[in-house]
Amino acid sequence: MPATARGRTSWLGRHQQRVLYGLAAASLIVTLAAGAVGGVLLRHAANVERQALRTQSLAGAVSELQSFSLRLEAEGLTAQLAAERAGELADANTALRAVTRHDRAEGDRLRGAYLTVVSALLLVVLLIWQFELQRKAGRIDRDNAARSEELSRLREEFVAAVSHELRTPLTSIIGYLDLVVDGEMENLTTEQQSYLGVVQRNADRLHELVGDLLLVAEAEGGGLALDINDVDLDALATRCVESARPTANAEEIGLTVELGATRLIRGDAVRLEQMMDNLVSNALKFTPSGGRVAVRTATEDGHALFEVSDDGPGISAADQAQLFDRFFRTRGAIDLAIRGTGLGLAITKAIVDAHHGSITVESAVGRYSIFRVRLPETHEPTPAAV
To answer: Do 163 and 217 touch, CB atoms closer than 8 A?
Structure first.
């Protein structure tokens, strides 16, 4: 294909919608203009014809007046001729006024018609402008959506790549730290042991963060891979509370558990325990010293329920709308300088979604927060061995 033809095709492809709008607008303009001009011409023709009739009537009246003049010269003025002459003169004056009035009104009527045509053209221009704005807005929306999808994809690739690149060296660092801690601690000074403790804590923290990033990337990539087995929700909740009790005691927070899940469920015990740990640790982080955190399991409407409530600062309605977004941190967490990455609740929701469950939050600012997880019951309890 010649370059000129390719260029023309490319231009038409890029401006196809604009060309269609232009053709539609041109057709509309031509139609309105033709109709307006035709209407003006037709009305003008009718007015000309009526004016011609009025002019003929005036000419007839003038001719009658001229004949009266001749009769007056021949017969002399009589009462009858005077009366007839007065009547004809009145008719002539009426016809003259009609002609004069029509000439002035005709200009006014035509001016109104022209204004109508101009108004119609302005309306067409406004419609074209509106179409163009809508087209541009639609194109901008499409461009923004495509750009957002591309940025999201690049971010996921970046997170996955960085996570994989960090996990390998971190595993080596943590492994060698464990060897030093297990075998050489007695040969180290108290200060060196303190330094190693700081390094180990931060290495473990970074390892957990990399794991969270990989988990988020896995969830975004098409769902979590689960190892499905029979799961005792009460046993998981008990283990979760016992693991969190030292932290609760250190912060002087009352931590209680109420068990009531009467059936086993089908799920991934590791992931479900991770979900519980996230919710309980979150509640402990945001509950002030002297507060209470309550964990509860139950069976409601054919679902297993796991609930964590606290009497902390609560969550605003605006924050609740974004609470499960990745990397989102509430205003309260920022103001209180509470450490976190904003991934815990996003991971929790991904785990719940992978189990075909639901998670909701109920909160009142300054009073309490309650997180409820509902999981489908898909398995009856195994009878106890006799």
So the answer is: yes
